Amino acid sequence: MAATRAGRAARGNQLNWRGRRAMRAVAREYSQDARRRRKPRRPQEQRRMLRASRYRQYDALARPAQRDNWHRRVITMKRFLFVIDMQNDFIDGSLGTAEAEAIVPAVTEKIRNFDGDRIIATLDTHFPGTYANTLEGKKLPVPHCFVNSQGHRVNVKVREALEASGKCEAVPKYTFGSLDAVNMLRNQLAEDKQEELEFEFIGLCTDICVVSNALLMRAAFPNSVIKVDAACCAGVTPALHRAALETMKSCQIDVINDAQAEASGASGGIDAQADASGASDGNAAQPGAEAPAYVFDAEAQRDAAVNWIREWFEKNGPESPAVIGISGGKDSTVVAALCARALGPERVVGVMMPNGVQPDIGDSEKAIGALGIKGYRVNINKAVSGVLEEINDIDTFKNEPKLTVSAQTLNNLPPRIRMTTLYAVSQSLGGRVANTCNLSETMIGWETKWGDAVGDFSPLARLTASEVVKIGLTMPEIPRELVVKAPSDGLCGRTDEDAFGFSYEQLDRYLRTGNTDADVKAKIDAKIKGSAFKRAPIEAYESGIPRLA
């Protein structure tokens, strides 16, 4: 009996040893196959050895269902949000547009609500000493995003949202697409084989840097999910924005909120309504209230304005030229371009009227040259100085105190003399003077009465400043930098918005939709009320005597 038990024990030990050896072999194969990412393969001999083992728990390794559970992977999704170039120069700086300003609230809200893993904010970056020699500098000779400049900084509202997220990483880039961002993610995600990836893009400009970076990510991570939020992007023009979205769709990039962008106008400037959340609007509509419909068709308005100018001249000067004071800004340049289309460039006269030395007179020359219209230069400095000198030497009759010329007089005298000069040139040519003020300026009184506020015909009087920009961007004959140039009066050295205390985007949105921040609304209302006398006709005494003709 003892011998029998000893023999059984020996055979049991031998089976146990064989079972352990088989287990180690299978475990080793599982480890190797896991690294190779393929299904494990087991020789039939190992399966027989495992079945012979007295340890039944080893059998589970050989059962197909259990084997699948053993090798099942837990797959998670990593989500990244790319915020592309939301910098001051692209929003309200040297290359800023109303389209870009309009998406700031939606971008800010998108960042605040993002619950993914990381946010990557790209910063377009150039250097003052080398930009002009780069290909981009030669093709786009507009200084922008110079390192350490105000224009290089991220918009303050966007920056606050990024900082509050606690998950943002800034990546400078020196051309349209960022290979640094691609390589950074490749290195960081190299070990995350169990992850699926999602990249979402928002920012500026849809047709340049957004599409460049989205396609780079598509090439670097071909099996990832890539999205572009159309409502949080803006292009150089609405047409280019639309074309870029279609390009990305064809490259299997998902475009989201596209219907929302078209309905609200978010792809094209200040005609965008307040974003759906209403978080950025102090005067947002209440639930259930309908926002006023507002869709601006720049090309249709441009063509209608051209026809209107042509018809006006047929009635009021069939042979007369249009005479326009050319400042080098968007308003005078767009009016000159509209007149050139309506009448032909040979019937358009541009008059440059610097007051002494005008630093940006080159922009006026560029506009005249690009449009092919006639051009004159009249320096008004002597006229302005002469009037001021005579006021300083003014004669008094009853020992009245001498007049002190006010700062407001110093600002408004040059535009009045400019208009006098413009009418002198126009009358000498038998022409008609164009008024170049837009609705935004007129409503808040940002014009000089009997100066730039007058004229014989006014193509822009019913169009906001942002709408003028949109029209200008549809006219390839106009140099783009003149259309997006920050508006200034050319008199006191400040931009218009510096003087306003609010932006054109806020003003134009209020004029078209009635919506804007509460404090901005109060400022705009005060300016509209305070300048009402400029828009009113001259009041006249009513004699009561009937007029027969």
What is the gist of this entry?
The protein is an alpha/beta fold. Helix content is 47%, strand content 11%.
> What shape does the CA trace take?
elongated
CATH architecture grouping of the largest domain: 3-Layer(aba) Sandwich
Average pLDDT rating: 82
Specify the CATH class of the largest domain.
Alpha Beta
Oligomer: single chain
Number of helices: 24
Distance between the termini: 145 Å
Helix content: 40-55%
Radius of gyration computed on alpha carbons: 35 Å
**Structural class category:** alpha/beta
Q: Report the β-strand fraction as a percent range.
A: 5-15%
| Total domains | 3
CATH superfamily of the largest domain: HUPs
Strand elements, count = 10
Low-confidence stretches: 37-41, 53-74, 260-292
**Strand line-up across the major sheet:** 3-2-1-4-5-6
Q: Examine the coordinates and then state which fold CATH places here, giving the name of the CATH topology of the largest domain.
A: Rossmann fold
What is the makeup of the main sheet? 6 strands, parallel
